[in-house]
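pinning this so it doesn't scroll away 📌
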Amino acid sequence: MTVLPTPLACRSSGRAPRLLTWLSWALLVCAVTLSAPAFAQHPAPEPTDPAKLLDISRTELKAIQPKPGKELTAEDLGDIKDKVGRVQSRIEQAVSALQPRLNDAKSRLEQLGTPQADVKETPEVAQLRAQLGREVATIDGQIKVANDLAGQAESTLRSATAAQRLQLSARLGERVPSFLQSGFWRSLSADRAADLERARVFGAELGALWATVPATAWLTLCGAAAVWLVLCLGARRLTARLCATRLPQGRLRRSLFAVSEVLLRTLRPGLIAHGLVLTLTASLVDGAPQGPDSLAQWLDTAEMIVWFGGFIAGLGAALLMARKPSWRLLPVPDVAALRLAWLPRTLAAAVVLGWLSSRTAATLDLSVAASGAVQTLASLTFVAVLGLAIAQLRRHTGLPQDAPDAADAGTGAPPELVIRPLWLSVLRAAAWLTLVGASLALLTGFVSLAMFVLNQVVWGLIVLGGAYLLTVLVDDLFMTLLAPSPAAAAASGEGKGDSKGDGKAGDKANGKAAATADGPAPPRTREQTALLLSAVCRVSIAFFALLLLLAPYGEGPMDLVRRSGSLQDGLTIGTLELNPLKLLQALAVLFVGLAAVRLLKGWLSERYMPTTRMDVGMRSSTTTLFGYVGTVAAIAAALTAVGFSLQSVAWVASALSVGIGFGLQSIVQNFVSGLILLAERPVKVGDWVSLSGVEGDIRRISVRATEIQMGDRSTVIVPNSEFITKIVRNVTYGESLGMVQFKLPMPLATDTDRVKALVLAAFQAHGGVLSTPAPNVQLDGVDGTNLVLNASGFVNSPRAAYGIKSELLFDVLSRLRAEGLLPGQTSPPAPV
């Protein structure tokens, strides 16, 4: 099939690399220009002396302690948490510096030994001993002080967290007059003058700060913002082109394009807001009079909210891809995606306006009625936006992009009833219940409760959307780079497309060609590794998302942003703390341990074991035992890294011993039998055994069962307990010789001496028969009218006995026929 070039390929020319280089440099210069002042105002370096660190921590802890009877606001509690975190970091730094010094002083003191009463020490030794003793005492005292300060910091943090939760509970249960009641409007009218005065003073402060900025600075900011917007537009088109033409076929190009969309849409308003804040606060650098602290904090908060709003808009647009259906990640029909195209920007604007208005009300310290009015207006905006989005989802057709038409499917049902995803119905019902509950809370006067619920809904959507994008990205990344399957890439229907993002059309046309051009599929090991790494990363992302959703709730907009800082606290289940850093450390220990065990097993089996005098079975048993021990050690090390005590495992195993003894009796019996087989080695890999009618070669011994290969190449799996509790015939045990034996019935009138000589000659002529022990022919008895001769000989291996026996029988019969000694033969055959 001839593939027509896409419009993008037709428009591409030699200027593309130069354009890419120019845009990249311009983007870098613009970003550095807008963000350079922020990096210029770096804080002073922390002292490294442990004593100074402890003094600073002690001073800050005293300053952090709230005054008795003072009501703490949400900002105060957040500030306390941040300061306590910095204090704990300094304490850990001081302890990390003191502990090696303490260990060194103790080791030097131990080297001097214990002073003896009958032996007089030299003055130098006595002086050194006293000096080391003072040093040990001093450092040990500093470490004790650091531990005490750490305990105080932890207690302060727990108190602040408990106060924040109590405050949140109190505010959520607080009821104010509803906006439907006349009391609400009377209170708002009574406090209107004071609220307007506060707003006027704040506006005057902001205007004064605005007036200090020269016109050239405003022109520079506007020019930089215009250039930045143009660069963002060019960068967006450039990333679409690179993803469609440079990345390998598959889903990776879709996920990377979605990530680029999130980054660009976040940076576009964020850097402009950052430049605006830097322009307004230029007085901090130029030496002009500074504005009030509340105004500076408000500007910083406003910038953070704008960054967050850009991220929301970018995340929603990247997931929906309303006008680029082939690049869409979510399984959303085209009709629903087009109807929800307005949602990301609208929701981002509602979040920015709602959270900024709440922050402004808190900064101005407005009255209760005015703050309630601001929160009510923001909550109603959220309810309207989310309700309209749910209504748009309700009217979608429910048909995915590639689904057949209802009439073609032969259902005869309207399109609304053809396909209705269950998750969409459940999500829509839950969203309606939430919005109805928030609306009822607003109508009944529980404004804080309604605002809290809606903030949590928005936060949950952001966290789940970001987690979904990251899981798709890591899965596509590992499956594309580690296990690039051409068949999977062709089946996925994604790939090259035009500048508008048609990511599936090219792949559907080139899928068959790619499957043959890229060669055979990758090894199964690479695919398994990619799946395992993808699963580990996706589980980690899900765990982090769960921490963000279940972290201690805040009461304001910025508490939702600060919640990401609580990742380090983790989750506590009984005495076990699931800390993200500890989990990552445990995963790293487990991965490195298992990889080391696998490498050592390969080295043992391929390099070291062949140099020993062990046989093949002993080598296999030793390598298998080493693998089991190493795996158990790696798992134990991973559990210890995550904070799980091995003593707890022992107690749990002791408690479950009775249940294991009864419920898992056969499994435990086979497991113990497998260990006995591997250690005692009554049978080993390569032995020829016979057990309960099963006879064959042992190919593998595991801890549960043994694999025996039969003569017809079939495999019989025998539980290990059968080898311990039953009679087993091991033909090759102890490197025994093989025996060839057969009987010859001859007439009574036969010359036995001639027959014996012929048979022995056949044995001696065969190269596989051993001369020691020598072959033998004996008269076994008389059977009616026949004599029974029993011929036997030995060969090197029992495995060769069957073939040599057949060859000897052919040779003996040929010799007897040549001599005319076969029963019924009257004379020797005539020579040919």
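📌 and the second one:
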Amino acid sequence: MKKTIPQLISERILILDGAMGTMIQQYNLTEEDFRGERFTHIPGQMKGNNDLLCLTRPDVIQDIHRKYLEAGADIIETNTFSSTTISMADYHVQDYIREINQAAVNLAREVADEYTRRNPDKPRFVAGSIGPTNKTASMSPDVNNPALRSITYDELVTAYQEQMEVLLTAGVDAILIETIFDTLNAKAAIFAAQQAMDVTGIEVPLMLSVTVSDTGGRTLSGQTLDAFLASVQHANVFSVGLNCSFGARQLKPFLEQLAARAPYYISAYPNAGLPNSLAQYDQTPAEMAVQVKEYVDEGLINIIGGCCGTTNEYIAEYSALIQGAKPHIPVAKPACLWLSGLELLEVKPEMNFMNIGERCNVAGSRKFLRLIQEKKYDEALSIARKQVEDGALVIDINMDDGLLDAKEEMTTFLNLIASEPEIARVPVMIDSSKWEVLLAGLKCVQGKPIINSISLKEGEEKFLSYARTINRYGAAVVVMAFDEKGQADTFGRKIEICERAYRLLVGEVGFDPHNIIFDPNVLAIATGIEEHNNYAVDFIHTVRWIKQHLPGAHISGGISNLSFSFRGNNYIREAMHAVFLYHAIKQGLDMGIVNPATSVLYTDIPEDVLEKIEDVVLNRRPDAAERLIELAETLKNTTANQTQSPAVVQDAWRQGSVVERLQYALIKGIGDFLEEDLSEALPLYDKAVEIIEGPLMGGMNKVGELFGDGKMFLPQVVKTARTMKKAVSILQPIIESEKAASHCTQVAGKVLLATVKGDVHDIGKNIVSVVMACNGYEIIDLGVMVPAETIVQQAIEYKVDMIGLSGLITPSLEEMVHVAVELQKAGLHIPLLVGGATTSKLHTALKIAPVYNAPVVHLKDASQNAGVAARLMNPELKNELAEELNKEYQQLREEKETTEKNIVSLEEAQKNKLNLF
């Protein structure tokens, strides 16, 4: 019996055919060949409609298939890349798509089966080719109307499903959705494939192939490859790969990235090099084979073929290359929640807390409601943009208002966001109480969103129906703690509903637990009703219970609900939120809908105020609410003695020394007095850069400590970073003038700086740049989101003396390891300086230093760079430093190993102790 593609894929690398279009060009077909006798009446030009040749010149198409099979192809593609009603409408032959697809499969199937009969040990397969169409669902065709779309999600699904049903019933062995340039188009095609397989009852492997449009590795619609993987994570994907765009050499870095992240088999079919000025491909089959051999030798692929410019001669080179080669082994599925906009957001425990911006909600913001009502979308978008700037990692969008067409407004606003890269880079939370609005939102976003929300209040049947649809569209979901009896308000009711929903979602729908986000209802406390006093405590206990009993699930909440009783007193409200979050996050709260611009930190709250707020939040005494209400009135109304008033407290910091004021300004993110305070500080220091190295870095280090202790959250960190950036920009001209006055022209060394790929934060790197430049170093700043291959290339080109890598978020750590590996592969021995909020000496010792044969130095802050750089520039001191680092890192590794062994021993002892009972 003939083996299937899934059976063969782990045994050996499979060969895909080459470019159909390139081969067709060799036949020098005329307009008459494309039309035949049958289509003479159709208006317009028909030449170029390659798919129509399945009907008018089937001999040519079958001859091409035969040539690829002779060349050694295991899989040939049907000539159906454009065989949808959407694409065929350009040639006025959309009514023939069923016939075209049927003929295309018959032609390929006949010769594939012939070659299988000749050699049963090398079975041949047919993949149904699905192109992206000539429309894009994520971008507007009119620059003056960014909300406009030339195609809808539903229109794409209808067209794709019609094509796929024919391909499946005609007998393809796989569906290949290829040359993906817009992920929303691809999501529609995936949805259609699932529908078509359901309708026909025929299940085949689903293969995806993306095309990147620039050297940054993004699709034409702006998504990174990691974000794309999050967007299609819901589907039963067999393989994912890259085709078109570049030649094998240029495609390799992106293929490496894909192979390292995608939990699927990997395919690649690059162009025959890059086109020349006449759009011809000059690379020979032998030249391309040398580059493809690297894919094979490094274990990057399972399927290899060719795209633009490749013919059967190119494919013929592959059989020798793959002989005895080991196919790629897919990586494990991510053990965390993946979300995406244009970029990936990994929700890992070490994130501490994920802030969901709340201001694009017509129910929660009068200003936003007014702007939407008045169609002032530019101003409404500025609110979304401000939230991202303030550190919101996800934006909640809600259009539920009695005077709005919520479905239309949700569609319009999501389409507008797609045209704003600064906003669209983060995922969205589609928030509505109306199912039709949630569904409309799902059809607009190319990333992986969160749906907010569904619940059991309408019963299990409706709940399961909604959940299955959300799962099929590829979104995470917020599940509210409601059921047929109503809202859960006690600990017992909260965990009862959450457990029931979890079992239904995971057991019956097949939901990935990481895509489930429970909202156990943040309810108002201190309302004067005794039953409400324990609401916050019940929520916090529920958070801990969910983490212990519902593995993989996340917890969120609308934090502002907690303080509803104190509306009008923003200070008390924000202080309550800070206290609540501090305690809930310690128990495992993952995210919450919060104003990212909130300014009250847990550590800011005076002790007497903190005590009264914690009494209320933690329900520590029966009169807690009355005491807090009295305090709130005092803060609000007292004029004679306002020592506890937020306004006076905020003004009091201005009485401290200039160093204290600068550090306070940084920690709080207050930039209003920087000009004044920096002018006062300048005479106290010999050089302006010493202010950066002294009080400013002191403030940033304090921010790092608070963030690490869970007393400060990422939006607040971003706010402080912007203040630091402003301070540095004020000092920059003075630093430059001091440098010029010193007549220092000798370059101490060349330093390449980069924020690694996947990270857009550059504050720390910019500070390092200033400090190093002031110490005589020439700086080559590559900016943010810099891929490893660019770092390697630029390091070689500029002949740098050291490389500085920066990163703020956790994925940056993995990317830094990748950069070190690539530097090692390139045979470089350039010292590496590593810094950023998530980096640590331990991580450097365990992960980065072992993969790179040059000094790797972890630097806690920018002030250390110049001293370390000076040692690295002196050969003798460099060797000393290398020895010190080796000893220190080895000690850290041994301590880590000892600790892990002790933990294992302790766990075993505890198990043995339990067994005695």
